[in-house]
């Protein structure tokens, strides 16, 4: 009888622990990309995704590899980290890139020079005006 009680308690503890761990995991979309999209923020994590967003003066954060993002509208700041990411944006003021072989394509900038303020760390990263 004592073994059955002990076994029952262990099962309850294991089930409870599994529930706690499953509730602490971050939410992911069907493509395995964490997305937070609002009027002011787009955050994408993952590998090999092609995504489209509309943004009006917010921030874009891309983490991962071989992602392609198209941003319709304007971004105050774009931050890219990882490898092989491509971001297409209509208008951007600041770009920060880390990693390798990332590219940000832009059409225009709201700065006085007409070029975004750029900070690049890594190899093969580039900012290209279209």
Structure description:
This protein is an alpha/beta fold. It is built from one helix and eight strands; from the N terminus they run αββββββββ. The longest helix has 23 residues. The radius of gyration is 21 Å and the shape is globular.
Distance between the termini: 76 Å
Unreliable runs, pLDDT <50, ≥5 residues?
A: 16-32
Mean pLDDT: 81
The number of E-state strands comes to: 8
Provide the helix percentage. 10-25%
Characterize the overall form. globular
Percentage of residues in DSSP E strands: over 45%
Characterize the largest beta sheet: strand count, sense, and whether it forms a barrel. Answer: 8 strands, mixed
Can you describe this structure in just a few lines?
It contains 1 helix and 8 strands; from the N terminus they run H-E-E-E-E-E-E-E-E.
What is this structure's SSE topology?
Elements: H1 2-24, E1 34-37, E2 41-47, E3 50-65, E4 68-83, E5 86-100, E6 103-108, E7 117-123, E8 126-129
Parallel strand pairs: 2-3, 3-4, 4-5, 5-6, 5-7, 6-8
Antiparallel strand pairs: 1-2
Name its key features:
single chain, 130 residues, alpha/beta, 8 strands
């Amino acid at each position: 009888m004592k073994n059955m009680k002990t076994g029952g308690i262990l099962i309850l503890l294991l089930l409870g622990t599994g529930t706690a761990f499953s509730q602490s995991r971050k939410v992911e979309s069907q493509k395995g990309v964490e997305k937070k999209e609002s009027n002011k923020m787009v955050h994408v994590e993952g590998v090999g995704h092609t995504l489209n967003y509309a943004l009006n003066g917010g921030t874009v954060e891309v983490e991962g590899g071989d992602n392609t993002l198209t941003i319709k509208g304007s971004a105050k700041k774009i931050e890219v980290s990882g490898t092989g990411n491509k971001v297409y944006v209509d208008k951007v003021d600041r770009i920060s890139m880390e990693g390798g072989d990332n590219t940000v394509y832009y059409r225009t900038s709201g700065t006085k020079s007409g070029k975004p303020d750029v900070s690049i760390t890594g190899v093969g990263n580039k900012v290209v005006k279209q």
